[in-house]
């Protein structure tokens, strides 16, 4: 899921990290010194600079422009008021992304290394000794866990691989990634599309008949580092670009170990902030030579990919029942406020798009997140507008998953090297915010892989708000690529489930790019519509890109 925090919460996260941060780069060309250029006044930015958040006293003209746009609109006193309401303690990570691992049990792992990576990367796969993942009863298929090691940086990414329930020798392989940024892919495994869910009372696995490994082998990878059982001893990842190269190396090593799967179709799927991850990862993979595997397609569910367009669609999703297909969610006066806010939001995102540095993109994040405020006041679930937001993350069931994955016998069977499991880590989220990653553009990578004839499925549950179907439809329509005209000329057709004949949604496709609206599903489509979700993935991996 994409973590939902108010503008005040985001600011609080920034302030609580008031120390030198090396990930925050800036353009050294044409810098303006605040001492020498008194006409440039940015009291909020000045404050952060003095507190050492950015560890530098110079900003370039684009940074100056972005902060002026922000501070002209957001009164400093109001931000201070918001900061008083949000203690920095509230947003500290439950556990640091720089976790202290348990003693590594190297004897019970098979080690895989490749000459192309020298000693930089390695893969460890847990041997099937007495304590192994199969004893947990999550599924009866062959399954493996292990760690992908980025040795020079002491980063270690956890994975859990399940073979297909059908024909693993020939069925496709899917890599699944959750979003956040900073949420574990174990959420996808146990809450959405994996072989089992977790009983909230007994904390035991319950078999899922709609698991995506019904007709595909599925890898659940916990990335970026600091998420779930993944950990770092020295450094963290704070941007999508950093994560993409790591995932490619993981896949090379994975298919070197599981070579029988390397010739099978391979798809990358994920949701929410994976709308950042997947396009970048797919681009890296597509441009690598001498791979053990080939990328067949990508699937992005309720993703955040093109912030400029997607922020606009918060307005009709909240205010236009005809367009959203549901009902108006906020009062008319607040709808008018959103209409007034968007042009400034768009200007800030455009500035971010042009330079893509932390200090130009942070103002866009701080300002545009304020467009969420009217919806926040409703008390509704960001991820499903039909329901109230209950508890942390709006889904109380998440706590059962955390409890289960913290059971000593589970951690032992999986080979966990951390002292505790954390489902969504605020420290990782904070790192991505500080790097300015969230409002950056990633749609250009989608265009790139489409031009390489790699099919792309954009699917969206139509009851999600935070990464809503209107916004995903909007950026799909506006995407600049050679097939734009044929995609926009394509008819929107009804999608009927092959499983039971029910009307599952609508589809629009030119055979390469497909947009799928999933009826009566929120942010996490496999959770809300498990049968339709399985029908969707089965059809897609079989090459039915039209959903006819």
From TrEMBL:
<keyword id="KW-0325">Glycoprotein</keyword>
<protein>
    <recommendedName>
        <fullName>Carboxypeptidase</fullName>
        <ecNumber>3.4.16.-</ecNumber>
    </recommendedName>
</protein>
<dbReference type="InterPro" id="IPR029058">
    <property type="entry name" value="AB_hydrolase_fold"/>
</dbReference>
<keyword id="KW-0378">Hydrolase</keyword>
<dbReference type="GO" id="GO:0004185">
    <property type="term" value="F:serine-type carboxypeptidase activity"/>
</dbReference>
<dbReference type="InterPro" id="IPR001563">
    <property type="entry name" value="Peptidase_S10"/>
</dbReference>
<dbReference type="Pfam" id="PF00450">
    <property type="entry name" value="Peptidase_S10"/>
</dbReference>
<keyword id="KW-0121">Carboxypeptidase</keyword>
<keyword id="KW-0645">Protease</keyword>
<dbReference type="InterPro" id="IPR033124">
    <property type="entry name" value="Ser_caboxypep_his_AS"/>
</dbReference>
<dbReference type="GO" id="GO:0006508">
    <property type="term" value="P:proteolysis"/>
</dbReference>
<feature type="signal peptide">
    <location>
        <begin position="1"/>
        <end position="20"/>
    </location>
</feature>
<dbReference type="InterPro" id="IPR018202">
    <property type="entry name" value="Ser_caboxypep_ser_AS"/>
</dbReference>
<keyword id="KW-0732">Signal</keyword>
<comment type="similarity">
    <text>Belongs to the peptidase S10 family.</text>
</comment>
<dbReference type="GO" id="GO:0000324">
    <property type="term" value="C:fungal-type vacuole"/>
</dbReference>
